[in-house]
Amino acid sequence: MPKFIVDCLRYLWAAPNTVLGLLFASLLMLTGARMRQVAGVLEVSGGWLASRLARYSGFAAITFGHVVLGYSAHALQQLRVHEHTHVRQAECWGLFFIPAYLLAGLWQLLRGRHVYHDHPFEKAAVAAECRHFKRLPQAVITNGQ
Question: Distance between CA 111 and CA 45 in Å, rounded?
Answer without folding.
Answer: 35
